[in-house]
Amino acid sequence: MTIQFFGAARTVTGSKHLITTADGTRILLDCGLFQGINTDELNQQFGFDPAAVDYMVLSHAHIDHTGLIPRLVAKGFEGPIYTTASTIDLCEVMLMDSARIQERDLERVNNRRSRRGQPELEALYNEKDVQQALDQMVAVGYNKPFEIGKSVTGLLTDAAHLLGSAAISLTVREQDKTTQLVFSGDIGRPDDKILRKPDSFPQADYIICESTYGDRIHEPEPDVKAHLLRIVHQTCVEKRGKLLIPAFAVDRTQELIYALDQLETEGKLPRLPVHIDSPMSVKATQVMRDHEEDFNPEILAYIKRDGDAFDFKNLHYVSEVEGSKAINSSDEPCIIIAPSGMAEAGRIKHHIKNNVEDPSTTILMVGYASPSSLGGALKRGDKEVVIFGERLAVNARIEIMDSFSAHGDYREMLHFLSCQDPAQVKTVFLVHGEYEKQLIWKEKLEAAGFAHVVIPDMEEKVDL
Hints:
Domain Beta-Casp: 253-378
Number of strands: 22
CATH class of the largest domain: Alpha Beta
Structural class: alpha/beta
Low-confidence stretches: none
Radius of gyration: 22 Å
Domain Metallo-beta-lactamase: 13-227
Strand content: 15-25%
CATH superfamily of the largest domain: Ribonuclease Z/Hydroxyacylglutathione hydrolase-like
Organism: Spirosoma utsteinense
CATH architecture of the largest domain: 4-Layer Sandwich
Helix content: 25-40%
CATH topology of the largest domain: Metallo-beta-lactamase, Chain A
Keywords: Hydrolase
Mean pLDDT: 94
Largest sheet: 7 strands, mixed
Number of helices: 13
Protein name: Metallo-beta-lactamase family protein
Shape: globular
Number of domains: 2
């Protein structure tokens, strides 16, 4: 059996890991889009033949794990895609949105390439390709083994990173040997405000493990709501400004809404408009409502008392472009929550462009942002940013609340791995992380008893 890493290798995007068994069965784990600057060509080629892949298993719905599935299908992949029912519903929302973004951005990208004397790129995929990909998805429940061909059994366990997210366990039978391979997917946090805690998973021989926050401990946040309320009051009441929150459309947005809902129920939230400015966020919130089976007991108890954790007075879900433009042109103090979480695309980017030079504005970062993204520049404290080709001074106040992060820190990831006997794990492969952070995470794992930790490079192939 071999593993080859075609994405998320010494980087955090483009997750793709190809397993080839001794009998030639090819199983792809995730098929994500590379995100950030200068990734257009990376997304055009897979590094392998899509038509030669037999099966796919998907960990969760984030675009850096799913965003090239429609292209995989368009280029010849015809096999089943095993994942959870929640993930399928989220993929319908997120991949259709991604297809529209691909089509909208292609003209701009090709104009830029033409000016540089570079050949034009083809569209990655369209909505028809997305629908075909959705048709190939097969819903699998947590902790229910399923067969992948004749020689592999799969198992999905709750990773608590996103609605429907899963760690993937593969039991591979080859001649007289059985090998247990686990892909962590993205590891969630045990105290997520909406989702259940991560599940344990079977003892592994090999682990492919994420590394996003392998170098850090999240700052303790004794009272998330109080911190959020303080930012709202300082920005919208004292400064009469706008609070802009770039947030992933799924889970982070709903977690923010839930916190604001609680503050409104408690009579603490100032009377001001709260705009969820994104058609995708509107749809994703409904998907969340439809899958309460993935919720933790605390929010279920709140819903029983309150009726709806994602709706309160002065909360406005904005789908139409005209509504978004009206928010942008208004000087009224308000809260605006919109994707993308890295501020790289979508309506939030327009809101930031129009308000980043205003000192009464606050931009609140609530999740991971790659260093090459606009969100990364803001979190880093850059004094200037370039948005839509225009260089702008960052006069807005930048706030960071890592308590809303969906990725576990190294202590939480070690807890996630605590169901394993490190002495029985032959190799841990680190993916989905920046190389410098992976080096630190590698040391943490070795100190915890995992003797052989490897950081593969792009397209590196390993024999197991």
